[in-house]
Amino acid sequence: MEESRIALSIGTALDRFIKNNQDQFQYASGELSQILRDIALASKVVNREVNKAGLIDIMGSMGSHNTAGDQQQKLDVLANIRFTRALMKGGEVCALISEESESYVDLNNEGKYVIAIDPLDGSSNIDVNVSIGTIFSVYRRKSPAGQPIHEMDILQKGSEQVAAGYILYGSSTMLVYTTGHGVNGFTYEPSLGEYFLSHPDMKIPVDGKIYSINEGLANSFSQPIKQYVQSCKDKNHTARYIGSLVADFHRNLLKGGIYLYPATAKDPQGKLRLMYECNALAFVAEQAGGKASDGIKRILDITPKDLHQRTPFFVGSVRMVEAAQNFS
Ligand code: FDP
User: Which of 135, 211, 261 to mutate to test the pocket of ligand 1 (most atoms within 8 A of CB)?
Assistant: First the structure.
């Protein structure tokens, strides 16, 4: 009986983990904990919808484009609504930056936190049943609460994040986050409707053998990037590119590797967005012992000038990112 499935421990639920670790946070008033719970809840709803894609009419494009010029998918829009509503409810969040909205949203409240979110990343993969993700960054507001949001609250450097993470809607659904005290991963147990701690204190291997880059664009890579990719081939490294940033990042976090999205002819500044894609993953990578760079400098040290700013992005195992930088 002791060894039967029902007698086995189900582990630590996300809520319990957040509560147990609340004191680690500098401003331990419970608000950040509530934000993490709200994100987890919204992700469960999005997970439910993602799993039904194909059965209900949520696949395909809306026929509109977001600020970055990408075609908006129905699920992109749905995920944006879900996360926005969840984060607006409690009053902890005073402003939202989203891939799906041109400007930030000032929630006109006393909230102390600003959230940057890509509600559904890798959306071109939705219709073909490939893993997609949500990416989020949490900042503390700088201007006094109760006044209109100021630019300094919005355009903060990645190093000022107080929490960040992602949800991966993959073969299982996972929430991975950091509050600056290491990285922990939680797997969703759908029959219980809960996330459970499955990957405590995640560490990315110092070196790896996987390189992830869209080599179809190789003709427009700079010479140093071409040379770096060639060096990976010379070492018989493995090429893996899902084309879903969260999924590619997560695999490399577990196995060791590098993800690169360099400048290309089409996207001379790189394709990925600093504020709601790169910063969060850079924070997670560093907290897991990895590195994130734009090829020259640390991602977390870039001062954003624009909400939808793009940047070249090299992230993953320290040695691989350093090697790629050495070619740049
Ligand atoms: P998508 O356009 O499908 O939303 O951030 C955008 C992103 O996906 C990343 O998730 C992904 O890694 C990258 O773009 C893929 O871009 P390419 O198709 O140019 O390789």
Answer: 261
